[in-house]
Amino acid sequence: MRRGWWVPSAWEWHLLISKYSQRARRPQEEPLSSLHQQTVRRWALGPAEGLKPQHMADTPNLPAGVDFSDAENEDGPVWGVSQEDPNPLIPPKQLPICMQEKRRIRDKCRWESSTDRTWERWAQRQRRSCSKVLEAVQDLASACSLWKKPLFEIEGRFGSGIHSFFTFLRFLVFLNLVAFTLVLICVLVPTILFTQPSGAAGPREGATLARWDPQCVNASTKDLWNNADVYTYFVHIFTGKGFLETSYLFYGHYQQRETAGSSIRLSYLLSILAYLLVCFAWITTQMMKEMIQKRMQSRNYRTRLSTKIFSGWDYCIRNTEAAAIKQQSIFNDLKMDLGEEVRYLERQKMTTLQKALLILTRVMVNVVILLLMSGAFYCIFQVTVYTNDYEQTTSAYGVWSLSVLTEYLPPFVISVANFFLPLAFAAMVRLEGYSPNAEINLTLMRSVLLKLASLGIFLFSLGQKVLCIGQHEDPSCSACGYNKNYQCWETTIGQQMYKMTVFNFLSTLLVTLLVRLPWRLIVDKTSWRLAQWYGKGEFAVPINILDIVDEQTVVWIGLFYAPLLPLINSIFLFITFYTKKYMLFRLCQPSKKLFRASSSKFFFQFVLLLGLSLASVSLLLNIFNSSPSRACGLFSNYPTVWHVVPQAVSTYLPPPAQRIVHYAGSKAFAFPLIIILSLVLTVYISQDRANRQTIRQLKTHLVLHAKDKMFLVVEISAAMKASSQAL
To answer: Can you give the residue ranges of the TMC domain (predicted)?
Structure first.
């Protein structure tokens, strides 16, 4: 006990002032009734104070916000009703009193349930401020989003399925811009500011020449600038040779002789690896979001048609055009729901014989598809080998037209195979009896596997010729570890990826201008029966997705060999958006079969992840196993590209950090890593099981709640009939 006078501290003064100020600010009104006081007391205490009924004693904690105030159960009391007091727990919102009384009850609940109002008010103000800032940022991002108005118009006129294709294209534009930003900050700006400009690809300094065979470093720059006429520049633009070969576009240009070169080497490698990791995380996150949306749009969780009809309209619309688009969107949504329900009922009525015939048809269709794909792979392999042999035996600058056609022969064959075979897949999938969503996804998967396998065959044949895969005993491969005829093989691969990117873009433009547009004119201006029977043609989402996924996969593969390729692809995708939009609005007719965006978006991200996996595997194999070119590039003095990372660790990090990094990269680190991942996986599995059990219990309570309401409706109807008869 204190002796003498008690002098309160600053904190005690604050508590006293806040306490009396709170009492002064309380509403001085009439006392609450006994029922209202009990409601306030129970509402403030909540279910944690022993109000949980007996039949839910063993129930795990339910999510916050779940209210079973009206639910009853045959085995126990009503939720929120104590055994000693029959008065129910009723939220103030549901009390049959005026608004002033409800506010008074709410204020009393707040004062009685809070323990530290100062801290709570401060935290509440901070939450409100953060939410306002977040909403402002989201509004700004939404206002500045790319192609917002065209995407809204596309969704209203053609449905959410085709809209998902254009949003996916916008997503790829952002991915490429992120890659270009990383390359610009980590590679291009340091190269321009901190190094001297170098000329064309040439031999390295004396240290390199003394260590390696001279025939591996005798790169020549002849014919790069000679005969610089219009045709030569035309060839350079379409083949990536000449002035483009010695520019910042390709790997061979980045060769420095300064001490800063080692840091640029490290940033060059790590920026590319970081970008691939960012792409993987971004795509995986999008897949998880779309998978949740896809599950919520499935048949078990679908919104009722009556709800969509009576609450689907947006009353903020004041424009006639926007109203028409919204009406069309609601019509498309209802059409999809009814079509899926009809197909579900038809599947339920199928007999055993019909199911057997359907399975046999699907097996035969898959066999035919495998045969077609095998023939396409064989043609791609043979054409790639022929093109590489032609480039080594014939001067590329003798006849420029023949040279360009020969160099574009592999991309042409790949494009032809990937143009006609998906059409065949789309025609044959109709025989398999799938729903429109399944048809789109299955055709998309087959087309993507065809495209990725074709690209893999092309890379393998290119690796056989350039990197001597499986041919190390060849005299042209034994000296350098790669084919000595390709002095800067990274630039050669970059040129191949550049040509494929340019060809894919040109094929998109030419198909629109030389195929779709003339066919639309034939359909509109002539009475040809074949043209009238086929019509304008539909906007094939799988084929268009196939094209842009192929372009993005090529960009990922060529990112190490052509660092500025993402910038070029961003420009191409920007133009492709308006080309596809024009084709959709002017040259195609709306699809008769609509499909949901929730299902298609997930598969779009999945096939993009497959392309990223193919690109990552090919890049990592070259980074860890292939010998860099001795005549050009940043890594000519290293046995492998990855060797620069251990050297940087031993140079820039202190000994304790070096030991940590070496341990993280050793096999001993795998054991604790596996244990940690197993524990994390166990936690997620347990949480998923608990959530599933909670969902089942909530469904049971909802069913009981509905039964109680139906019982009350029956009782009220009987009472009304009895009263009417009595009258």
So the answer is: 488-598
User: Strand ranges (DSSP E) for 581-673?
Assistant: none
Q: Is residue 671 part of a domain?
A: no
Q: What is the DSSP string of 414-442?
A: HHHHHHHHHHHHHHHGGGGT--HHHHHHH
- With vertex at residue 160, the alpha carbon angle to CA 159 and CA 163, rounded to the nearest 5 degrees, is 95
Rounded Cα distance between 463 and 483, Å, is: 10
Q: Residue 609 CB: number of other CB atoms within 10 A? A: 17
Please say if the pLDDT value at position 150 is more than 80: yes
CA atoms within 13 A on the CB side of 484: 16
Q: Is there a domain that residue 134 lies in?
A: no
Structural domain boundaries enclosing 709: 680-727
538 bridge partner residues: 589
Q: Tell me, yes or no, whether 196 lies in a domain.
A: yes
pLDDT at 316: 67
Question: 409-439 as b/e, with b when 16 or more CB fall inside 10 Å?
Answer: ebbebbbebbeebbeebbebbeebbbbbbeb
Per the CB < 8 A criterion, the answer to whether 483 and 462 are in contact is no
**How many other C-beta atoms lie within 10 A of the C-beta of residue 389?**
11
- C-alpha 727/C-alpha 717 separation (Å) is 15
Q: What share of the chain is helix, strand, coil (3-state, %, to 5)?
A: 70, 0, 25
Query: pTM for the whole thing?
Result: 0.68
The SS3 assignment for 76 reads: strand
Question: Of 81, 73, 90, 74, whose CA–CA distance to 50 is shortest?
Answer: 81
Long-range contacts of 272-276 (CB under 8 A, 24+ apart): 272/559, 272/560, 272/563, 272/619, 274/182, 275/178, 275/179, 275/182, 275/559, 276/556, 276/559, 276/612, 276/615, 276/616, 276/619
Distances, alpha carbon 515 to alpha carbons 506, 521, 536, 537, in Å: 13, 10, 11, 11
Q: Which residue has the tokens 């990090």?
A: 653
Same domain, residue pair 613 and 701: no
Distance between CA atoms of 280 and 278, rounded to whole angstroms? 5
